[in-house]
Design brief:
Blueprint: E1 2-5, E2 18-22, E3 26-31, H1 41-47, E4 52-55, E5 62-64, H2 65-76, E6 81-83, E7 91-95, E8 99-103, H3 105-112, E9 117-121, E10 126-128, E11 133-139, E12 143-145, H4 146-156, E13 162-166, E14 173-178, H5 180-183, H6 192-200, E15 206-212, H7 216-228, E16 233-237, H8 248-254, E17 258-262, E18 273-279, E19 282-289, H9 292-295, H10 300-309, H11 316-320
Parallel strand pairs: 14-15, 14-16, 16-19
Antiparallel strand pairs: 1-4, 2-3, 5-12, 6-7, 7-11, 8-10, 8-13, 9-11, 17-18, 18-19
Helix pairs in contact: 2-4, 3-4, 7-8
Family: Belongs to the MoeA family.
GO molecular function, one term: metal ion binding
EC number: 2.10.1.1
Length: about 350
């Protein structure tokens, strides 16, 4: 491209968009890349502060910002994502399904570490709805060296930088409510309705529900029964603290669960338990939910549940990494997931 005086630009082809900003009214292009400038256009260009403009001249070693953005799109876009058309050198990606958004952090950082290249995304592991904006990308200059974009390709590797894990359909959920006081009817079970509301947000419901007293064998038997009935996720409530008569963690272990963690660096939710029971060709996620899940708006359960529904098997390391950002601020009006909790 080359720079010329605007008053001499009639007949030339713009190589970039010309943007006009009117505060509180509009921010849009008055002329787009490829527009052939006429005499009538010159006063408009001058009115938006363009005394000089850049017009296209072929340079085989350079790429226009829109072409570079297309390269970034190809390196980021994965299944269940749709891309916008380039606008002023920027492309955005949106979700086409509900699910959990994820970024390959190491490769992503390597790409963003290359000068003049920028990609911005939502936070890691954020639950999103179809239509949610996931990422935006562009290069900084109007034209960029082809060689630099080849460096970007090398840094990105051979698979997309971004991923959207869609929620699984027809996930079967069972609940085991523990506690002699609930089992004998001395107090009302107020925990299960909270879980039903949480699951409803994902289009799920509680298919099987068992009540047990504080006897470990009774609780482990209820868990094993729900596994036999084909549950994909089993939620156990009550008995999750360190009191001597709180025996749910032992019951989950006795039911055959491989415990990923009992305890998590998240507040509320430190006494959370996650394990998996392998049954034939199935893997059943089992969670022990502390009482805070019943009376706090957001807890460890809200961080783990979307990923379990999406079919992800979490590791101890991933749970441990919740620690940074794992302190809920208890805002009067909860805006999760658009907040710092976990992210």
């Amino acid at each position: 491209m080359k720079e010329i005086r605007t008053v001499d630009a009639a007949g030339q082809i713009l190589c970039h968009d010309i943007t006009r900003i009117i505060r509180g009214v509009t921010k849009d292009a008055v002329f787009r890349k490829g527009h052939v400038i006429t005499e009538e256009d010159i006063p408009v260009l001058l009115s938006v502060g363009k005394d000089h403009i850049f017009v296209w001249e072929n340079d085989p070693s350079k790429l226009h910002e829109n072409e570079a953005a297309r390269i970034l799109q190809s390196l980021c876009q994965n299944d269940y994502m749709e891309a916008s058309e380039p606008k002023e050198g920027k492309i955005e990606l949106r979700a086409t399904v509900d699910g959990v958004f994820q970024v390959d952090e190491e490769r992503f950082d390597a790409v963003n570490g290359i000068d003049e290249v920028t990609i911005a995304t939502l936070p890691q592991n954020m639950p999103v709805r179809a239509g949610t904006k996931l990422a935006g990308m562009r290069v900084i200059p109007l034209v960029i060296d082809k060689e630099k974009m080849e460096q970007v390709r090398q840094a990105a590797g051979d698979r997309p930088l971004l991923r959207l894990r869609p929620y699984r359909k027809n996930v079967r959920v069972g609940v085991v409510t523990t506690g002699t006081e609930v089992f004998e009817g001395r107090i009302k079970d107020t925990f299960t309705p909270v879980l039903a509301d949480k699951l409803k947000a994902f289009g799920l419901s509680i298919e099987e529900h068992r009540l047990t007293d504080d006897v470990t064998e009774h609780t482990s038997g209820a868990v094993r029964e729900l596994v036999r009935l084909g549950m994909d996720v089993i939620l156990c409530t009550g008995g999750m603290s360190v009191d001597p008569d709180d025996r749910t963690p032992a019951a989950i272990r006795d039911a055959g669960a491989e415990i990923v963690t009992y305890g998590a660096p998240v507040l509320p939710g430190a006494m959370f338990l996650l394990g998996y029971i392998r049954q034939d060709d199935r893997t059943v996620a089992v969670m022990g939910l502390p009482g805070c899940v019943m009376y706090n708006d957001r807890t460890i359960f809200d961080l783990v549940l979307p990923r379990v529904i999406a079919g992800e098997m979490l590791t101890r390391r991933e749970i441990r990494r919740f620690g940074i950002g794992g302190l809920c601020m208890g805002c009067r009006v909860c805006h999760y997931p658009v907040c710092g909790f976990q992210h």
